[in-house]
Write a structure and sequence with these properties.
alpha/beta, globular, binds coenzyme A, single chain, Rossmann fold, 5-stranded parallel beta sheet, GMP Synthetase, Chain A, domain 3, 2 domains, binds adenosine monophosphate, 7-stranded mixed beta sheet
Length: about 625
Amino acid sequence: MSKELQKIYDHSLKNPEKFWQEASKDIFWFKKPTKILNKSNPPFYKWFEDGVTNTCYNALDLHIDQGRGQKTALIYDSPITDSKSKFTYEELRSKVSKFAGALKAQGASKGDRVIIYMPMIPEAVVAMLACARIGAIHSVVFGGFASNELASRIDDSKAKILVTASCGFEPGRTVEYKPLVDEAIKIASHKVEKMILFQRPGHEVKLNAPTEVSWEEVVSNANDADCVEMNSNEFAYILYTSGTTGTPKGIVRDIGGHIVALKWTMKNIYNIEADDIWWSASDIGWIVGHSYIVYAPLFKGCTTVLFEGKPVGTPDAGAFWKIISDYKVKSLFTAPTAFRAIKKEDPEGKFFSKYDLSSFESLFLAGERADPDTIKWAENLLKVPVIDHWWQTETSWAISSNCTGIEMMKTKYGSACKAVPGYDVKIIKPDQTLAKPNEMGDIVVKLPLPPGTFPTLWNADQRYKENYMSNYEGYYQTYDAGHIDDDGYIWIMSRTDDIINVAGHRLSTGAIEEVLSEHQSVAECAVLGIADKLKGQLPIGLVVLKTGVDKENEIISKECVQMVRDKIGPVAAFKVVIVIKRLPKTRSGKILRGTIRKIADGLEYKVPPTIDDPAILIEIKEDLINNKILNND
Ligand code: COA
Ligand code: AMP
């Protein structure tokens, strides 16, 4: 680290209050905070508690007040529908304040929850910002989740309004949202009062008044709504993420800290200024989409790109290069999977050579481990720095990264670089002592966490405390394991819970197991993530049938796959279920998932001394070979 970065980092840990008070001066406050950090009730810390502000004001109005209303705020490019549009800050504010007025007219007010279940269209961004404008708490649900998942979010958040669209488009198929939403509303025990549906041109669906209303209609009757003054510690949004069971965790974000931290990251981590064009190729249903498609770039006042398409197939492996070239994008943020997909389709970069990428300065990757091969391939092709950085839904911004706006550090392939100012990252060994450099252990962050991270879980303070803050007193447990090397570089090696990462999407194997257990022929099951060259990991299910079941194994497997698709959604990418005779267990009955995973990945494994019958491992290996999923190539 250069002296400058080291100085900033040390200052952020030694004097967090001064550091973040200084950063807080860069945002708009109706009332500036005087109390910077309240530490009186750990692990519940409060940043900027007497500050009063508004998320939407900071994203839109502030820039217009500063005379930048004609600057492009949002570029929408949808190769999948062949449509494009641009919105200046003024145009976007006008849409947002109208929809905010519409939300109010439909009964939403400060503190009410609004579920947003939409494809990647400008109206989704408008809906998020409109909630922020009136102080409603949005909860965006990724379009690849099925009705059951949507219903569990309706129930947990007790949403008043649900905003959706007539459909989304995936390559080769139209995702009809209305039947999915209808089913979710039927399953949920909490009843939403209104559904507002955006009719995509040419794909209109029938609505059942009075609880179902069209976006166009409510907007045409609405008045503009102004920004509501919000206390810094009120909630901006809930974003549900996979927990270790089927019950998702509602990560909440408070308002003031979120604006301060995210705005700070744009220059310091990403080296983005207000005049730059920024693109995050993710989905608004994920944390990357929340923070870096919508909020951070708009807080910074730059231009953000909203892309409705895929890295390949819409129409080809040149889609990313086309966007960068057409809009003169300075930096792109995406998941390594996207680059693996491009590399697979166009290893020699033939599409790349068709475009002018002279504006392009850096590529940021996160969401899953970036394998060195992919990073090197991207570096070779793009001739710009490729930066792997590590973060989580819980934190909303990077815990470790190259801080390119302060100093460009050298790349160590396979490492997610060093802790970012604000994060005191440590490794704790199984014996609960702090690890020395290069020793493996659980990755933890010393409390208090910096602003912008999660102050609690929605309606679940106790779960927050027990799940994240109790195993290591005074630390936040990230549930990632790895080590820190002699130079302070952090190496993220694996999760320590049953979360797997499929194409940069976080999934709970426990939740998939819960679905499989509901199959009437299944006695017990195990779901594990096995290595996959494209998606990083893929879930597979192993099921043991009840005695006396006479259905064919193939039919049971198909039914299990369909159940997961219906209950969790296509995003689970769950396609393989193998019927086996028995599961390997320890004598105390614990399924040896780690050992099965090693066998499936073709890695060396030790026969655990606690196993009840070692012969089962040989059986499993044969089953995996017979089903052609042994990853030993
Ligand atoms: N709405 C409905 N369905 C969706 C969806 C959405 N928003 N997003 C994905 N799905 C569906 C896909 O259509 C697919 O369905 P299928 O089983 O019928 O084919 C399934 O969910 C799995 O999707 P995905 O894992 O994305 O695989 P894919 O084969 O469609 O695409 C990639 C592969 C690599 C192109 C794609 O995963 C990708 O672009 N990854 C980038 C990762 C990313 O943006 N991560 C976000 C976190 S940073
Ligand atoms: P999510 O909350 O969906 O963003 O997923 C967070 C998890 O993704 C982390 O806990 C890690 O397991 C994984 N992850 C994110 N970024 C990286 C990275 N750069 N390297 C390795 N794993 C990562």
